[in-house]
Amino acid sequence: MEPTDLSSLPEEQEAAPPAATEDPSSAFAPSSIPPRPASLSSLQKYLPLDWAGYFDREEDVAIPGSDNVFHVYLAGSEGPVVFCLHGGGYSGLSFALSARIIKEKARIVALDLRGHGKSSTENDTDLSVETLCNDVLAVLKTMYGDSPPAIILVGHSMGGSVAVHVAAKRAVPSVAGLIVVDVVEGTAMASLVHMQKILSNRMQHFQTIERAVEWSVKGGSLRNVESARLSVPSTLKYDDSKKCYTYRTPLEETESYWKGWYEGLSDTFLSCPVPKLLLLAGTDRLDSDWAGSLEDRKSISGFIFNLSSGAVSWMSKKQESVTLSSSEAEYVATTSNVYQATWMRRIMEDLFESQTSPTPIYCDNKATICMAKNPSFHGRTKNIELRHYFIREAVTKGVVELKYCSTNDQIADGFTKALSYEKFFKFRHLLGVVDFESRGSVGE
Question: For a pLDDT cut of 90, what percent of the chain falls above it?
Answer without folding.
Answer: 44
